[in-house]
Design brief:
Layout lengths: L1 H6 L4 H34 L2 H10 L2 H16 L2 H24 L5 H29 L5 H29 L1 H21 L10 H6 L3 H13 L2 H32 L3 H25 L5 H22 L3 H13 L1 H15 L5 H13 L1 H22 L3 H10 L5 H23 L1 H4 L1 H4 L9
Helix pairs in contact: 2-6, 2-7, 2-8, 3-6, 3-11, 3-17, 4-6, 4-10, 4-16, 5-6, 5-8, 6-16, 7-8, 7-12, 7-15, 10-16, 11-13, 11-16, 11-17, 11-19, 12-14, 12-15, 13-14, 13-15, 13-19, 17-19
Length: 445
């Protein structure tokens, strides 16, 4: 009986859509919890550094464990890896809920819980990305990745609104309880579908060996392909400046508006609307035929039209427009890049390669987060509110009240972030990666 049920599990595009729905629900719960705890943490400390450290500890372990996770994803069952990642995230939220309910929740608990969930999240990205490569036809990679971006964006729209309403009705504890339920839904979605395992390729056979060798294989693979390495280094540049800017948006808005949760929620919803529209366009269109254009033009547009305008704005209207533009380009950046790598890398080594790719691209993000908080709190905020030359020079543009120093740093990060796209277009190996590197299933000439 059980074997008969297993044979009739949904597979292919249907299985992908079921997993996608489960992840969408889970992302919504997580985003609501993050919104509620962001408000709580800033009210407790009033410092941007606190939120920057929460972001750091919720992100850095993912990068640290990525090489090991990638090797294990290629060795083990990818379905199991996705389930373990969701269970760890649910457990992390459950512990925070218990601490809050008993009146024992402290700021450092957010650091520990974020680090724990982040360590297991290192399995989620390579496992899901590699599984998607076998579930979805290559011609539909762009649309499928557009749906993934769509889920991220839709949660960004809905989470602040729903969390704001639920905080009034059930409080932070109720929001976290709902989050735990959404993790159960996500795990169930993965359990009921068939997740394929890849066939062994020549590249996979050559990469086989001890765990240490397999953990490093992804880096060797990328270094040997200069075009792919160049693409990821442009992400390294972009993510460094982007992380500086994005981590300061919430504290800047709270500081400039006297902790107005409604305005912060409105701006965060605008982020989601931008991503939603961008995701819908990508899902319907499939993205540019030369995928690198989606990446590089997206870098330029998101940094210049989004992040820079965000720092220059001093009203909810300007902030919302900037937020929309910032996230409108995100699906094109991430979806085009994901489709590029899914087409170029053999499925049975994608776990290792995608994990290494993520580490190269995002290793600069935690550094940006660590720099952003102290630079804003200890230098730019006092400078913009005091009598030093910097405040006098920039006050006509940014003002000199609370949040002005953070706004200066956001604008600087946006302008510098444009360089990632410009550098990519200046280097032939990057701008022509689509044609210089053959697809993994291309027929030999």
């Amino acid at each position: 009986m059980l074997k008969g049920i297993a044979r009739h599990r949904p597979d292919g595009m249907t299985a992908f859509l079921i997993i996608w729905i489960g992840q969408f629900v889970s992302l919504l719960g997580t985003a609501m919890t993050r919104f509620a705890l962001t408000i709580w943490a800033f009210q407790e400390t009033g410092q941007a550094t606190t939120l920057a450290l929460v972001g750091f500890f919720s992100f850095a372990p993912t990068l640290i464990f990525s090489p090991l996770a990638g090797a294990l994803v290629d060795r083990w069952n990818r379905k199991l890896m996705m389930i373990l990642s969701d269970l760890a995230a649910g457990l992390s939220t459950g512990v925070l809920l218990l601490l809050y309910a008993t009146g024992r929740l402290e700021i450092w608990h957010l650091y520990v819980a974020g680090a724990f969930a982040s360590a297991f999240e290192s399995f989620q990205f390579p496992a899901f990305s590699a599984a998607m490569s076998l579930m979805v036809p290559k011609s539909q990679y762009g649309r499928a990745n557009g749906l993934v971006s769509l889920a991220d964006s839709a949660t960004t729209i809905a989470a602040p609104v729903l969390a704001g309403m639920l905080l009034v009705v059930v409080g932070i504890g109720g929001v976290m309880m709902l989050d735990v339920v959404t993790f159960v839904i996500a795990v169930t979605a993965v359990l009921v579908v068939a997740v394929p395992q890849p066939k062994r390729s020549l590249e996979g056979a050559a990469a086989a060996g001890g765990l240490w060798k397999e953990s490093l294989y992804g880096f060797r693979y990328i270094v040997e392909r200069k075009s792919l390495l160049g693409v990821q280094l442009t992400f390294t540049i972009s993510n460094f400046f982007y992380s500086i800017g994005i981590i300061l948006i919430a504290p800047m808005i709270l500081a400039r508006t006297g902790n107005n949760e409604l305005i912060l929620g409105t701006v965060q919803s605008a982020l989601g609307v931008g991503g939603l529209v961008g995701g819908l366009v990508l899902a319907a269109w499939g993205g540019p035929q030369r995928r690198i254009h989606g990446v590089l033009l997206g870098f330029i547009g998101s940094s210049l039209l989004g992040l820079t305008l965000m720092g220059l704005g001093q009203s909810v209207v300007v902030w919302s427009v900037a937020a929309f533009l910032m996230f409108f380009f995100s699906p094109f950046i991430n979806g085009s890049n994901q489709a590029l790598w899914q087409a170029k890398v053999s499925p049975d080594v994608q776990g290792r390669v995608f994990a290494a790719r993520r580490l190269i691209a995002q290793v600069s993000g935690p550094l940006g987060m660590l720099i952003a908080g102290p630079l804003a709190d200890q230098f730019l905020e006092p400078a913009m509110q005091g009598d030093v030359w910097l405040g006098a020079l920039l006050a006509p543009i940014f003002g000199n009240g609370p949040g002005a120093g953070m706004a200066v740093l956001i604008v600087a990060a946006g302008l510098l972030g444009v360089t990632s796209g410009l550098v990519g277009y200046a280097i032939r190996a990057i701008r022509e990666v689509d044609v210089l590197l053959p697809d993994h299933d291309a027929s030999p000439v």
